[in-house]
Records
---
Amino acid sequence: MKPRGPSAAGTIALALALALCPLPGHAHLIETGLGPVYDGITHFALTPEDLIPALALAMLAGLRGAEHARRVPFVLPVAWLLGGVAGTLAGAPALVIPAWLPLLALGGLLAADARLPPAATVAIAALLGIALGYANGYAMAQAGPGLRGVVGIAGAVFVVTTLAAACVAARQAGWIRIAWRAAGGWVAASGLLLLGWSLR
């Protein structure tokens, strides 16, 4: 005797039951189930409005030379950590910088190959770290990982900026320098696109 499969009515009933009991969805992954530090690392890696400005700043520092490339990987994560601690302790979000502003500013500086003094690069790193760190800290406090999530983000920022700044500082001969600047143009174009969307 041939085994009977599920009836059409049973399949429809199961599909309706599943459709009427949805799980909550989130735009940004905060909790991975691996622990709060990994939640922070994953949040940074999957949030383009955090990852791309950090990479653009590291590339700008590397393009400016070894002195800049050595300072930014330490200043940016420390500022991010301080901003994140302030964000987790705050009861309300502060004035949020628009996502297009860091992309447009850093991408423009990178594409223009701006000759900044080391103090200016450090100041940009500190401002960026505090602003984005505060927003991340507030998000971590609301979602659950808290300060340990902020530590994971700061660690990820350190690794990403160190590798990117070292790679750019070591490879600048000929057309490769133009390629780094072209990447800055794409970052700035992303900022312009976000600006256009925010104005519509």
---
Amino acid sequence: MTTALSVDPGRRGPIEFPPPPPGRQWTFGNVIASANGVIAWARGGGEDPIAEIAGGDLGRPGRRADVELMRRLRARADAVAFGAQTLRDQPDVIGRVDDLDGPLGEALRLERAREGKPPEPAQVVYTASGQVDLRAPIFNTVGVAAIVVTTAAGADRLRAAAGERRGVSLIVAGDERVDPGGLALAHRRLVEEFGIGRMDCEGGMVLLESLREARLLDELFVTVSDVVVDPVAHAGVRRLVALAPGAADLVAEARLASDPGYRFQRWRFR
């Protein structure tokens, strides 16, 4: 397969992926990191780590390309996945494709229609405790299917909170904790019961590391900004640790001529 990673607005062809391994989906992550490898920290006082890491300027060509890449990756996925902490930090988050206007948004909608996919990917939320707010838009938006991977205890909590009445599908991946074996079984069920053959994981890092430990994370798309984050200035700083030496190969890298400070990388795990 090609490992090209075009981020030029003039070249918007589909991003290609290998076929999924037997019994599970092809899973890829998507993160933005600072120049010194910081991807998140504990939020407080209205802080938005992603906006700060991205440089804060939504009109910057590199930032626009990063948003477009995110939507292109979602468009290729059967499901977009989030950890529970990401949902707490961003309670309105939904991994949508149809929220991008203009020619690219229309091209992505047509791409999904040609492949026989629903307009929006399914949304998968991972929570061992089951402590998520079922009032969040991700669980209540028409046309968006929500699946929660949790424990038996978490499923009981969600059922008590009327999760099934709200149409939220539950996958139990352990009794009180979700270990690598439980994750593997959950991902098999995502294939067999929900037809999810390709999944885009948008974080956070705890979830990405758990999937990597379970050998379920195949690729990681990393946008590297030119912002240097002072780790001493923030609490709970998390770094991009999944790409340890020898763990993954850089199979593609792209830059914009109009904004070379951003780097767009595609890593594949061995």
